[in-house]
Automatic annotation (TrEMBL):
Pfam families: ABA_GPCR. The lineage of its organism: Eukaryota, Metazoa, Spiralia, Gnathifera, Rotifera. Residues 108-277 form the Abscisic acid G-protein coupled receptor-like domain. The chain crosses the membrane at residues 119-141, 173-197, 209-233, 253-274. This is Abscisic acid G-protein coupled receptor-like domain-containing protein. Keywords: Membrane, Transmembrane, Transmembrane helix.
Amino acid sequence: MTDKDITDAQKRLKQVMDVVVTKKKRIALIEHENFMRTMTANVNSTNPWHILRRTFTSRFENPLINHISSADSDINSIKQEIYIYEEIYTQLYTDLVDLNELKERIEYSKTLQGKYFHVVGHFFSVYCIWKIIISSINIIFNRVGKVDPVTKSIELTVHYFNFEFDVHFWSQYVSFILIGIMVVTSIRGLLITLTKFFYFISSSRSSDVIFLCLAQLMGMYFVSSVLLLRMNMPAKYRHIISRVLGDLQFNFYHRWFDCIFLLSALFSIGILYLHHRSTQQSLSLYDKTVQKIHD
């Protein structure tokens, strides 16, 4: 993404806006002409030669009526075109906002904090792809993983590259760091989403209810996070959490978590694909419309 992309998007937006303004001016001009013709006809109707006017009325009123009907048809056609252009304008404006946000993210990614989040984002992207594959395997073969992903990854790396590495010692520290990052980022994302939602529906009368709902959701989310993140811990720490939680059917919860996670991932991929496709269609529609204007 370059500055030229933003400039081109601004030019496309301005062109569409100019077309909309031109067509609205055309409608105003047609309506003004109709108004003037109607006023002229009303003035002529007060002419003392009304007897002669009634004699030749069929010769003069029919062209006026036909002209007004044709003008109304033109106005309706232009309004339909304006509606199409306004839809294109809305989509192009949204694309321009997205490009500006993307530019800001690129500039932010050049900072130290941005580079950190960039690396973490790539790491969790790989983790998400791995989780989708593992969840699919767990659902198909009806199994539950026994080894946490960090320990498994370190074991595979040591096996293929012949490193001398204390897997059991380092895996617990890496696992706790990974879990800490996952908990912080997931709770942060949840709070941002809930804040936007409750801000949208909040009022002075419903503030107490909102706080109660928020507390309930946060409690449920924390318990479910502890329940599901236990599989990311080494075996000995996993058993400690299992004893604390009591006699629960962990396999049942983990299987449903895999199902919900896989459906959510596929739904998110579908939404991103539809958004990308709608953007491409809006640009294609814009190109066809501009070509039609030039022709």
